[in-house]
């Protein structure tokens, strides 16, 4: 396995970062005999439009310096960390539930589906799952639900970075398509900003919107 240097942020000094995720939970599991611990997290669950994206990441035992919850990073930091994670990880994969699936089976079912797919697509099968907040009833793999796991666990933090950057890139590509330009996905990434709500009220929903959810909140 190739080893890569830990990241040094080019856009923000590490001294200004308050808290990083650790691998303390992973160490406990490694000591119990689990070799391939996969962190899982999702992005886009609360959005008005676009897919829900999950990621599964199995990291080696070496810490990635500067890794933390995607919500606590800038866009440039996330993009940089995503590259490091993909190079360093033993395995990583994403699962995507598209809007038609969310509309058909609901956000909870779509979340389970995306999680299951991200696990299935891992090139190295995990023997334990670390999941931010969730329990995954569709999996027989041993698992641990960790409250605020993306802020605590390196594996979950890595999954949060991969899920977030993947979904953001999807939404930016959609924003360039003529039929979606009026919704300004490049600014709101599908989330329910005031401008996005006004665009839905004025122009109606597109095939990229989550039908039932938008009807409740717009």
Give an overview in words.
Helix content is 42%, strand content 14%. The longest helix has 22 residues, at 99-120. The chain has a single domain (14-170), classed as Nucleotidyltransferase, domain 5, CATH 3.30.420. Helix 2 crosses helix 5 (154-175). Strands 3-2-1-4-5 form a five-stranded mixed sheet. It is α/β, with parallel strands linked by helices and 218 residues long. The protein has helices at 24-31, 75-88, 99-120, 149-152, 154-175, 185-188, 194-203, 211-217; strands at residues 37-43, 52-58, 91-97, 128-132, 143-146. A hairpin with an 8-residue loop joins strand 1 and strand 2 (52-58). The chain is built from eight helices and five strands, in the order H-E-E-H-E-H-E-E-H-H-H-H-H.
How do the helices and strands line up, and which of them pair or pack?
Layout lengths: L23 H8 L5 E7 L8 E7 L16 H14 L2 E7 L1 H22 L7 E5 L10 E4 L2 H4 L1 H22 L9 H4 L5 H10 L7 H7 L1
Quick recap:
Helix content is 42%, strand content 14%. With 218 residues, the chain is an alpha/beta fold. The radius of gyration is 18 Å and the shape is globular.
Features:
single chain; alpha/beta; Nucleotidyltransferase, domain 5; 5-stranded mixed sheet; 8 helices; 5 strands; 42% helix; disordered N terminus
Helix content: 40-55%
Number of helices: 8
Overall number of domains:
1
Q: Strand count, sense and closure of the main sheet?
A: 5 strands, mixed
- Name the poorly predicted regions: 1-17
Order of helices and strands: HEEHEHEEHHHHH
So, the CATH homologous superfamily? Ribonuclease H-like superfamily/Ribonuclease H
């Amino acid at each position: 396995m190739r080893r890569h240097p830990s990241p040094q942020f080019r856009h923000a000094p590490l001294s200004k970062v308050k808290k990083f995720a650790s691998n303390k939970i992973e160490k406990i599991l490694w000591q119990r005999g689990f070799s391939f611990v996969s962190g899982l997290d999702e992005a886009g669950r609360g959005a008005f439009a676009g897919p829900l994206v999950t990621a599964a990441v199995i990291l080696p035992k070496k810490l990635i310096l500067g890794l933390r919850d995607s919500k606590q990073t800038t866009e440039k930091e996330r993009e940089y960390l995503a590259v490091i994670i993909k190079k360093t990880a033993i395995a990583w994969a994403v699962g995507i539930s598209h809007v038609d699936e969310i509309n058909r089976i609901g956000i909870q079912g779509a979340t389970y589906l995306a999680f299951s797919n991200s696990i299935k697509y891992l090139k190295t099968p995990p023997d334990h799952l670390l999941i931010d907040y969730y329990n995954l009833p569709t999996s027989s793999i041993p698992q641990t639900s960790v409250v605020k796991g993306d802020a605590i666990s390196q594996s979950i933090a890595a999954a949060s970075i991969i899920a977030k950057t993947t979904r953001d890139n999807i939404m930016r590509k959609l924003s360039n398509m003529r039929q979606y330009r009026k919704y300004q996905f490049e600014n709101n990434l599908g989330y329910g900003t005031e401008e996005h709500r006004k665009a839905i009220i004025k122009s109606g929903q597109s095939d990229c919107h989550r039908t039932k959810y938008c009807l409740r909140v717009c």
